[in-house]
Amino acid sequence: MGALQITVGVIGVAISIVAWIMFVAGVWRMVRIIRLGQPDSTRNGPFGPRFATLIKEFAAHTRMNKFRHVGPWHWMVMWGFLIGSLAWFEAYGETFDPHFHWPVIGAWQPWLLLTELLGLGTVIGGIALAIIRQRNHPRRADRQSRFAGSNFGQAYFVEAVVVIEGLGILGVKAFKISSGIEDPSWWSSFATKGIAEILPASTAAVTITALVKLLSGMVWLYVVGRNLTMGVAWHRFSAFFNIYFKREDGGGVALGPLKPMMSEGKPLDFEEADPEKDVFGAGRIEDFSWKGWLDFTTCTECGRCQSQCPAWNTGKPLSPKLVITQLRDHAYAKAPYLLAGGKKDMAGDEVGLTGDNPYAGIDVLAIAEAERPLVGDDGGVIDPDVLWSCTTCGACVEQCPVDIEHVDHIVDMRRYQVMIESNFPTELNGMFKNLENKGNPWGQNAKDRLAWAEDLDFEVPVFEGELGDTEYLFWVGCAGAFEDRAKKTTRAVAELLNIAGVKYTVLGPEESCSGDPARRAGNEFLFQMLAQQNVEVLNSVFEDRDPLERKIVVTCAHCFNTLANEYPQLGGQYEVVHHTQLLNRLVREKRLVPVAPIADDVTYHDPCYLGRHNKIYEAPRELVGASGAQFREMPRHGDRSMCCGAGGARMWMEEKIGKRINLDRVDEALGTAPSKIATGCPFCRVMLTDGVTARQNDGLAGEKVEVVDVSQLLLEAVKRRPQPVPVAGAPEVEAEPESADVSTDKVATGTPLPDEDE
């Protein structure tokens, strides 16, 4: 051990002590800050399923690989960080003694091969990620960059450290070989042995390279320890906890049901709630649960959520990524005030800190941050236009690789704005009043709920006190009962069930709105009122049946999600099926037999609340195929399907900013040259029909293009239509020429897709 080694080793240790102190202090501060959030005991277990999900998601990169061109490179970097840390710690010994290696495994050929692969993987992976970031730089037009709004300096710092660490691992190994310290086999050191041949023999170089390897990590520890909002770095640690504590302990993402309204870690009981003590949604950053604070901390700013968001892609101010990062920055800026005991009452007066100088010792910036409203157009953390642009489609949650629960957080903020501040878009006033007074958002009379059944050539059975041998309760829904276009779906389903001999009944005037629009708009109180009323009615209808035999079929994707996933929160346990699922089963059982294939080119739009929220993708497509139609898939489909724009109660709000979402989706559908656009949700049908009509008026769509429900396609195929009989002497009618089909990969339609989504 020479003077150089002693000097270098001491420098490395001294810097390490400072870096580790800074890092551990940062971890401690972060834990204290995250604990400022509201309690949430629902995340505590069970351990087995949660741990299994954690292992699957990080080891197999199941969610990261949703972007396949990114997944492999990030996988290399991740394992390089986790296992490569052993090689990094080895540098402490190598700075003092170039011959140092770990006992037992240090000279083991498989270990040398592993370090070779880890070193190469981190270098290649880090460079690849930097190239991907450059190729998707915000300089690109049309909001195509998912990195718009991300902190590029922090990202490049992390990627540089990754590459330097990898080069350090390879460099130390290569100099050891060139200096004769090690002589590994070619198969275990295929890259470093080649590099060693052009390097000089120098034990000093081993020491210096080991120091570079060590200091790259020390600089990283010091920098992130001082910057708790550097999510692109901290996710290396926090992502494991965020995945483990995700809302669904079975491994699913936070879609389907909304998180119940919580206060002090328990579902809020409106009969006993006190606005002075209980938390009504999220009106201040401390109203979010500790898991929400962990979400904010974990955001990597990768922008996958942003790239999939229909609001962002149509020029709205909402970016799910920026919502999370803005909440994160506000939370950590306000944290010193909260840690000191600061708290304000409903009127905004300080009640947590007392004395002549209550703010003594608190950072003035934290005090200023405490004065900012969470939502507001005058200095608020989140702009109201951002909050109300969300369609709750769930594309952000579906794509997030670290399981951030964007939709739950957005709805929590809406809840506070609606129930405490009474601050929401004026268009929702009418919808709320109609729901409260008439039990439906259209404000129609309950006695008209059976108007859709008029003129049918069979009798629609209405529940009259006993189910008897009825198999299904047909939940018609408000749209299916009152909206003219949706009525066609209701009639088609009723007719198909009649043809198949399925015994069903409807509630008629006893049915009320499921409450979905109220809940997504933030009016949790109104939702609870409607839902409890419906649960009471449904439980009385099914009172003699086991919960597993309480079967309901629905045509509305939003009703389906609410009845199946949210009514159990209120004591309503039912087996709920979507009409596409039931009809598909009836076709498979030969109870519905298509006999007249339809000669149409059909593209299918996945409703968000049927697809992403409930993973029902195949049944509607199989029905389109069963009808005999020529099926054409849109570029954005399945779990990446584009929203129609109606969700999150947006159907009742004016769309005043940017391009209309339904027009963007219709443009994409028209790019497949369809004669029909099929869907499985009345909300989607309304929005898409409006979009098609607008494009027809613009001369951009054929007059015969129409939007239908898949049940109508099936009904047309099941009912054999009589062929026209030619009349002697009548002139032949020349068939209209078919429109030329242009593939969407040749002519772009709708919002341009980022490269990684094509």
From TrEMBL:
Keywords: 4Fe-4S, Iron, Iron-sulfur, Membrane, Metal-binding, Oxidoreductase, Transmembrane, Transmembrane helix. Residues 290-320, 378-410 form the 4Fe-4S ferredoxin-type domain. Gene3D superfamilies: Alpha-helical ferredoxin (1.10.1060.10). It comes from the Bacteria. Residues 720-758 are annotated as: Disordered. GO terms for molecular function: 4 iron, 4 sulfur cluster binding; metal ion binding; oxidoreductase activity. One of its GO terms (cellular component) is plasma membrane. The keyword Cytoplasm does not apply. The keyword Iron-sulfur applies. The chain crosses the membrane at residues 6-28, 73-91, 111-132, 153-175. PANTHER family: IRON-SULFUR-BINDING OXIDOREDUCTASE FADF-RELATED (PTHR43255:SF1), IRON-SULFUR-BINDING OXIDOREDUCTASE FADF-RELATED-RELATED (PTHR43255). This is (Fe-S)-binding protein. It comes from Amycolatopsis acidiphila.
